[in-house]
Amino acid sequence: QEQEASCVVAMMPSPGMGHLIPMLEFAKRLIRHNNLTVTIIIPSSDPPSTAQTTVLRSLPTAISHTFLPSVSLSDLPSITNPELGVALTVLRSLPSFRRTLLSLSSTHHRLAAFIIDSFGLDAIDIASELHIPSYIFFTSSAMALSLLLHLPYLDQTVQGNLKDLTEPVQIPGCVPVHGKDLLVPIQERNNEAYNYILHLSNRFKMTQGIISNSFPELEPKTFKELQKGEPDMIPVYSVGPMVNVDQTNGTADKYLTWLDDQPRGSVLFVCLGSWETISSAQTHELAIGLENSKQRFLWVVKRPDNLANSTFFNDINAQDNHLDFLPEGFVERTRGMGLVVPFWAPQAQILAHKSIGGFLTHCGWNSILESIVNGVPMIALPLCAEQKMNAVLITEDFKVATRPKIGENGLVENEEITRVVEKLMEGEEGKKLSYRVKELKDAASKALGENGSSTKQLSELVFMWKTP
Ligand code: UDP
């Protein structure tokens, strides 16, 4: 059976743990097939962070990685748009990427595929020069993918800004979504970020295919549209959910030990992503809301408002561990009921713990998938990027989350936090959401099972890459 030639797949995740983690999980699945190895090429604007090195260190030998020389973004006055920060890091890394790919293709007899996420699309020209087929690993929902494929059409047909539309936007195969809930950088035209995303969305069709980190059982109507197979459509392979479920490399972490002592399903996990921060005022409301809910919680908290004056994907080592920005006396008053963890915690392992009963999330796609594979219902507190769309998806379509209302001051106020936390952890609605998320958990596990849809699609890709 194994007559296929051995081959190497090169991957370049753009900066951000949300890109690196799922791509590594995909790589781990790929190397289960014989004669296939993966090389990860990593661009960055900072020295490797502890979070990065921790996940990279635990990789099997069939996955190697190399860091491109880190590029400087210090000439930019201040990067207020995260997408542009990621984009520029990739753009400025292209010369060293070219050298690395050249050297790889001269040492390996067959580089079968080059895989990037959507921010790496400018690198595909270099792969094309070397006759390496490129694929996009799309790290968000099929809904977000559908939006990006639909964006050139929206750009042509919609007058004015998407955020000002009075009617919801109908993305093919998706729940209707208001313009102000769409991917943040495309809500307004006439800015650099809009043009950049439009540029990327026009480049999707220049690749051989899109590998989606979702699956048809989760987003059936959207995949029906995306996989219609019409002649001018780019192939979409669904391989999700690629999430970190590996429990074996978990150290006897003190947070997990704390969870061991809590009743089953009693703890709300609160974590708003790998790099974003919220304002001091919102941090305050969140703290008081949690305290007043009288529910157990494990909160991974970052110093407020550090976005504008720090690098995006900052090194955890550089973070201070002081919690002086929390309301006075908060830590003492909630001791026993709550545990506050500065900056970073092993989220995938925490969500898999039996004591977790809910997840207050910023709605990053990896966080959503991690919650689903562990059957944990959510509270949606989206911040930026495509998170508001994801919030619509998990509340209105999947029905596995509840979304607090934003007050007139632009904040989710503490009373509202308390209300949704109580509702999720104790109310009837929480039970319904729990039930529904367990159905999706089963669907996810089926998709990844022996004859599951994602396993089949992944094998199809491997077969293609191994067939010279
Ligand atoms: N993550 C983690 N610990 C943290 C924060 C984040 O392990 O304290 C992981 C999380 O499990 C997920 C990724 O970082 O795999 C974040 O990806 P996501 O798409 O949810 O959000 P992003 O940070 O990219 O906005």
TrEMBL record:
EC number annotated for this UniProt entry: 2.4.1.-
Keywords, in A-Z order: Glycosyltransferase, Transferase
Enzyme superclass (EC): transferase
Domain of life from the UniProt record: Eukaryota
Any one Gene Ontology molecular-function term assigned to this protein's record: UDP-glycosyltransferase activity
Family to which the UniProt record says this protein belongs: Belongs to the UDP-glycosyltransferase family.
Name under which the protein is recorded: Glycosyltransferase
Record organism: Arachis duranensis (Wild peanut)
Gene (name only): LOC107486713
